[in-house]
Amino acid sequence: MFISPTYGPLELDQVIKRMCNFMVQEGNYRIIVGTDSQLLINSTLFVSAIVVHRIGRGGIYFYRKTYDSKPYSIKERILTETSMSLTLASEILQLLAQDIILCEQYRQLLEIHLDVGEKGLTREILNMVVGMVKGSGYV
Asked: Where are the alpha helices (DSSP H) in 24-123?
């Protein structure tokens, strides 16, 4: 179940319909999928988001939370975040697969956001997760 501040709780197929309705307006768009995590006392919280950005003119977003009782190291969390984002992007494209033109259009607009950088603890796996994303056909 996804949450939208605008539309409330939605299933993924409903999210796709809201995205499509939003994107019929004229403009240039980016679709960004990303996951972030936070260690809690007895679990790890993962939050995955879908953002539809109408460049220069706002956007809409949807998110879902997933809890895992396993404590993760920083590297495990980043790899899991990347995997969850790639899975979500694939689910989005699968739902759009009935309309091949729309599916290809969305694939070209779809970006995977990674919470990594060249400084800090994540620099050691930067190339690995970027390779996962590029190898899966995403920016």
From this structure: 74-96, 100-109
